[in-house]
Amino acid sequence: MQVTVVGGGIVGLSSAYYLARGGADVTLCEKGSLGMGSTARSAGGIRTQFSTAVNVELSLRSLEVWDSFHERFDVDIAHKRNGYLLVTGDEETAERYREDVKMQNELGAESQFITPEEAKEHSPGLEIDDLVAATYNGQDGFADPNLAVQGYAAKAREEGVDIRTKTAVTDVHTDGDAITGVETDEERINADFVVNAAGAWSRTVADMAGVDLPIHPRRRQLAVVDPQRILPQDVPLTINLDTGSYFRPERDGVALVGGHFSDDPDIDIDRYSDSLDIEWAATAVEQAAEYTAYFGGDSRIRRGWAGLYAVTPDHHPIIEETVPGLVTAAGFSGHGFQHSPATGQLVAELILDGEPSLVDISSLSSSRFEDDTGLVEHNVV
Ligand SMILES: Cc1cc2nc3c(=O)[nH]c(=O)nc-3n(C[C@H](O)[C@H](O)[C@H](O)COP(=O)(O)OP(=O)(O)OC[C@H]3O[C@@H](n4cnc5c(N)ncnc54)[C@H](O)[C@@H]3O)c2cc1C
Questions:
Q1: Which of 273, 351, 290, 277 is nearest to 319 (CA)?
Q2: How far is the CA of 334 from the centre of ligand 1 (A)?
Q3: What distance in Å separates the CA atoms of residue 339 and residue 46, rounded to the nearest whole number?
């Protein structure tokens, strides 16, 4: 079985690895360098606290790999199990949090619905006067996406994957309905299956095969900030879903501060700025100061960057065989790093076994956009 994977981010590398381990003859084409798309720009967050069962299951199956990544892949990805804390000052959101935690617990996640006072025990600098509830899971945390890329890439090579960087796929070949391979800027590569793992560029790759997928690039930023008050290294990654603000400790006492606070315009994917907007960074710090004492006027913005989310209308990925021979694994919004271990295994199952079994992903087919399936992920930033 010959498979060509388009995209050398964490999703493409994970897919290539599990495919090759399952016996496929895999070529991976990456137009730039491995992991230098959205993966390198991620905050590295890994959590189980989602509002739909399919996202929680993708998290739990992925967590099994993240928790043992060092042993499996011989790379220490600096996986910090600080937990995630989701806070809110809104009664309606609190009620939803309660329902989410019930569903997460039924699926096996150890999340808890807690009071603002209990939340403060996890994060002493939290300002709780305006908060009404929180959820917490100590299984959650964050890791270094670049190290995870190295782990998957090295093991994929060991399994025989032919990894080609600086190799752009320029066309997808079909014969009638069937996919027969890809054209790169250098040659034609025949394939029984093509995996579209091109992240924010996946709509363009789908288009090469004559398929229109609703996956849109959206710009998101992160700032590296010196807090005004010491940020303990063990505080959870904290999200205020009322405003979309989040932060987590980074090395050496600095914080990563993120969030999305404005409109979400279409961008030109080949010309977007990957630099930090200083106005956005000031807003991100102000928003974080609204509910914590860690940030405020004496915080210092050191640097930062922008990257791309690949966003579908319901903020869930598309994982499916879109047309015979074309497997799509894209549209992960802000969750593609953490869901990549389960996704790679699902892609391998789809291609090698004919159907996925790790997680029921029938709800992640692109046909869901033809009618309203009610798949809504509330916990997005
Ligand atoms: C600011 C920010 C914070 C984030 N935080 C988190 C987080 O905390 N947790 C989390 O789970 N996720 C997070 N994400 C999302 C996460 O980064 C992505 O979902 C994930 O990296 C997607 O991986 P990918 O492999 O699909 O895409 P990418 O890493 O973008 O890889 C796709 C690759 O395809 C290549 N490509 C495109 N077109 C072609 C072509 N024609 N031929 C060959 N190669 C091609 C690109 O060069 C690119 O390298 C964040 C994203 C951003 C921007």
A1: 351
A2: 9
A3: 8
> How many CB atoms neighbour CB 290 within 10 A?
15
- Supply the pTM of this predicted model: 0.97
Atom 21 (ligand 1) nearest CA: 39
Q: pLDDT digit string (tens) for 298-354?
A: 999 999 999 999 999 999 999 999 999 999 999 999 999 999 999 999 999 999 999
217 lines ligand 1 (CB under 6 A): no
Q: Using CB atoms within 10 Å of the CB of residue 244, give its burial: 0 to 12 exposed, 13 to 18 middle, 19+ buried.
A: middle
- 């027969």: which residue's tokens? 180
CA 89 to chain centre: 26
What is the rounded CA–CA span in Å between residue 183 and residue 170? 6
Q: Which domains are seen in the chain, by residue range?
A: 2-47+145-214+313-370 (3.50.50.60), 82-140+216-311 (3.30.9.10)
Distance 106 CA to ligand 1 centre (A): 30
Let me know: does 237 contact 334? Beta carbons within 8 Å.
no
Does 165 have pLDDT greater than 90?
A: yes
> How far is residue 237's CA from residue 212's CA, in Å, rounded to a whole number?
36
Q: Which atom of ligand 1 is nearest to the CA of 29?
A: 43
